[in-house]
Write a structure and sequence with these properties.
The chain has 282 residues and is an alpha/beta fold. It contains 10 helices and 13 strands. It has helices spanning 45-53, 66-78, 96-107, 121-135, 140-151, 164-168, 174-177, 205-220, 235-249, 263-269, and strands at residues 3-8, 23-26, 29-32, 35-38, 59-62, 83-88, 111-115, 154-159, 186-192, 195-202, 225-231, 253-260, 274-280. The strands form 3 sheets. The chain has a 6-stranded mixed β-sheet, with helices on both faces. Strands 2-1-6-7 form a 4-stranded parallel β-sheet, sandwiched between helices. It has a 3-stranded antiparallel β-sheet with strand order 4-3-5. Helix 3 links the parallel strand 6 and strand 7. Helix 1 packs parallel to helix 10 (263-269), helix 4 packs antiparallel against helix 5 and helix 8 packs across helix 9 (235-249). The radius of gyration is 18 Å and the shape is globular. It starts with a strand and ends with a strand. This is DegV domain-containing protein. Keywords: Lipid-binding.
Length: 282
C-alpha cells in the first residue's frame, strides 16, 4: 500500500532533511501591504521582519484555499497513492486544518487529516513520523495514527521580545499581551491544547532564555528526545540555546535541528523569536 503524506509550509522542516522524506508541502500566504505571496516561495521571513518594523506596514496571513488541497490530493491519488494523510498547523492558530478537512470531505475516505495542535517543528515531527510510516508500507489508518501519536509527544515553547504582534494577529488575548509591557515582564509562551498561552514570566531576556532551556529539559522527560530550535533573525541566540540543550540533555538528545521560522510565524511573532520544540521519542 502506498500512502502519501501532505503537510503545510509552517512545519519549517530543516534543510538537511530535504529529499530524505516523501512529503508534499502546501504553502500558506503572507500579505504585506496588500501584496500577497506564498510562504517559502515568494516571501521570506526577512521581508516580513522588515515590514513589521516599518511604520504603518500591514502584515497578515491566510490559509490555503480548500481547492489547493483538493488539487494536491487528487494529483497524489492519480499518481498512484492509495490514500493521503494530511498533517497541519493547529486549528486554533490557522484555518489551514479546516481547509484541508473541506477538501478531504470532497475527495472521500482516502484522505485523513490530522490537527497537530501546534506549529513549526511541533508540526514537523509528526509529519516526519507519518512519512516514515508511509515509507515502511503502513496502511492509511496506521500512518494517520502515527501522526496523531507523535503530535501528542511534542512540546512547543518560545520567547518573543514583544507580544504586540501576537496580539495584533489575534493569536493571544489582550490581557496576556499586557504582560509584555507591565513591569518589564518577559513571558515565555507555549502551545497548550492548540492555543498560545503564557507558560512562565521572568524579568529579563537573558533569564527568559535560561528558563526556556529549563522548561525544554523538563518537557523531554527521562527518555530520549529530539529537539528543534527555531529563531527569527537571531541565529546567535538560537545557537546558544542549542549548546545549552546539548549540555543539559547529554546522551538523551537524539536529533537536534536549528532552523529559522518562515514568513507566516514571523508575521505573528515578530523579530527576536527564540523557540524550542521537544519531541519525546517514546
Amino acid at each position: 500500500m502506498t500512502i502519501a503524506v501532505v503537510t503545510d509550509s509552517t512545519a519549517y522542516l530543516p534543510a538537511e532533511l530535504d529529499g530524505m522524506y516523501d512529503l508534499t508541502i502546501v504553502p500558506l500566504t503572507v500579505v504585506i501591504n496588500g501584496w500577497d505571496g506564498l510562504e517559502g516561495i515568494e516571501v521570506s521571513p526577512a521581508e516580513v521582519a522588515r515590514a513589521l518594523t516599518a511604520r504603518r506596514a500591514a502584515v497578515s496571513t491566510s490559509r490555503p484555499a480548500p481547492s489547493a488541497f483538493t488539487e494536491v490530493y487528487r494529483r497524489l491519488l492519480d499518481e498512484g497513492a492509495d490514500g493521503v494523510v494530511s498533517v497541519h498547523i493547529s486549528a486554533k492558530l490557522s484555518g489551514t486544518y479546516e481547509a484541508a478537512q473541506l477538501a478531504a470531505a470532497e475527495i472521500g475516505p482516502q484522505v485523513k487529516v490530522v490537527d497537530s495542535g501546534t506549529a513549526a517543528m511541533g508540526l514537523g515531527f509528526p509529519a516526519l513520523a507519518a512519512a516514515e510510516a508511509a515509507r515502511k508500507g503502513h496502511d492509511l489508518d496506521a500512518v494517520w495514527q502515527e501522526a496523531t501519536d507523535h503530535a501528542a509527544r511534542v512540546s512547543t515553547l518560545f520567547y518573543v521580545d514583544t507580544l504586540e504582534f501576537l496580539r495584533r494577529g489575534g493569536r493571544i488575548g489582550a490581557a496576556s499581551a499586557l504582560l509584555g509591557t507591565a513591569l518589564s515582564v518577559k513571558p515565555i509562551l507555549h502551545v497548550d491544547e492548540g492555543a498560545v498561552v503564557v507558560r512562565d514570566k521572568v524579568r529579563t531576556a537573558g533569564r527568559a532564555l535560561t528558563r526556556l532551556v529549563d522548561l525544554a529539559v523538563d518537557a523531554a522527560g527521562d527518555g530520549e528526545a529530539d529537539v528543534a530550535v527555531h529563531h527569527l533573525g537571531t541565529p546567535d541566540r538560537a545557537a546558544a540555546l542549542v549548546g545549552d540543550l546539548r549540555a543539559r540533555l547529554g546522551d538523551r538528545l537524539r536529533d537536534c535541528y536549528l532552523t529559522e521560522v518562515g514568513a507566516v510565524v514571523a508575521a505573528h511573532t515578530g523579530p527576536g523569536l527564540a523557540g524550542v520544540v521537544v519531541h519525546q521519542r517514546a
